[in-house]
Amino acid sequence: MDGNKLVKKAAAGDKQAFAALYISCKDSLYRYAYYKLRSAEDAKDAVSACITQAYMGIGSIRDERAFSAWLFRILYRECCAIIRRKAQISFAEIDENRYILPDETYIRSELSEALDSLGTEDRDIVLLSVVAGYNSQEIAQMFCMNPSTVRSRLSRALGKMRQFLE
Fold this sequence. Notes:
Layout: H1 3-11, H2 15-37, H3 40-57, H4 67-89, E1 99-100, E2 106-107, H5 110-116, H6 120-131, H7 136-143, H8 147-165
Antiparallel strand pairs: 1-2
Helix pairs in contact: 1-2, 2-3, 2-4, 2-6, 3-4, 4-7, 5-8, 6-8, 7-8
């Protein structure tokens, strides 16, 4: 069944349709949250909270074509909330240069350093495009930008990463 029909059915209260939507997007949601939060447990928490909020609010979605952007905005806000909570708990415990892989090992690579060299919004655009697989139109909806602006910023950010890695 096509995604727009699933969104309509889910918005009408069909639990099976919402489950199918969740299954279709859970991996890209997790990948984004994982790279944004740098923790497998935090990523799982963020995706879980995102899906709960989406389930509660799917009836309010106006345009089924914008489902992906709507869902991302929920996840993005949840990731930011987790980052703020962690910062309040203990700013000293957060190591900005550490990435946790799914097997819970720590790694400091040149690629993670290159990602760290980007601004927050540019890093998010790169992660959404490269890791989560969203296109410029979808990312533009998420950030309320023009798609050509997203493509330009992505190109500039990838260029900056390339220079950093040379």
